[in-house]
Write a structure and sequence with these properties.
The protein has two domains: 1-38; 43-184, Sandwich (lipopolysaccharide transport protein A fold). Strand 7 and strand 8 (129-139) form a beta hairpin. By secondary structure, the protein is an alpha+beta fold. The protein starts with a helix and ends in a 5-residue tail after the last strand. It contains one helix and eleven strands. Helices cover 20% and strands 53% of the residues. It has one helix at 2-38, and strands at 43-53, 59-71, 76-80, 83-86, 94-97, 100-104, 109-120, 129-139, 144-155, 158-168, 173-184.
């Protein structure tokens, strides 16, 4: 009789443990599904040409891209082959091109990668400048661009290579952070 009683108690304990595990695993599954579902895009645009206007009514930023996809859960936007124009007080803006970009917090921070080219044509304050790098983070409102990757800066008669860069696009200043080496080739007149 004692053996039958122990068997029944053991069976009930195993059954209770099994039901508890089933309940726990069953309640976790919707969270996993919800997590995957939460990172689905909530909006997309194709053939985008968008100009952001500042408080004074002047353009401050222009975004051109064949496709942009927005994700609400982390407020990011994936941008395919972006062409970004950053306007400033100087007559000529800076442009940034790459194969990919991701904007976070609206357009407060844009991360570019793969074949990044930053370009500015000659104006009264700065010479024509082209910079190339693998990745670049731009803060459009602050007009700051930075990278930890290799950078090549090309200006008339000058090519400079370095590792890491901090650029103030508003002022037109570029600081290479380390290993800077340059070539000066005077124009043949």
């Amino acid at each position: 009789m004692l053996s039958l009683k122990n068997s029944i108690i053991s069976f009930l304990m195993i059954l209770t443990l099994g039901l508890s595990l089933w309940s726990i695993l069953g309640s976790k599954r919707p969270e996993i599904i919800a997590t995957h579902a939460a990172h689905r895009p909530d909006a997309f645009m194709e053939n985008v040409v968008a100009t952001i206007i500042n408080k004074e009514g002047n353009p401050s930023l222009k975004v051109e891209a064949p496709k942009m996809v927005h994700y609400a859960d982390n407020d990011t936007t994936d941008i395919e082959t972006p062409h970004i124009t950053l306007y400033r007080e100087s007559p000529e803006p800076w442009s940034i091109d790459s194969r990919h970009a991701k904007a976070t917090q609206g357009l407060d921070k844009i991360y570019f990668w793969e074949n990044v080219v930053v370009h500015h044509i000659n104006d009264s304050a700065n010479p024509t400048t082209t910079m190339t790098t693998a990745t670049l983070t731009v803060f459009p409102n602050k007009q700051i661009a930075q990278t930890d990757d290799n950078v090549t800066v090309i200006q008339p008669s000058t090519t400079i290579h370095g590792l890491g860069m901090l650029a103030n696009l508003h002022e037109g200043t570029v600081q290479l952070l380390s290993k800077a080496q340059g070539e000066y080739l005077p124009n043949a007149s």
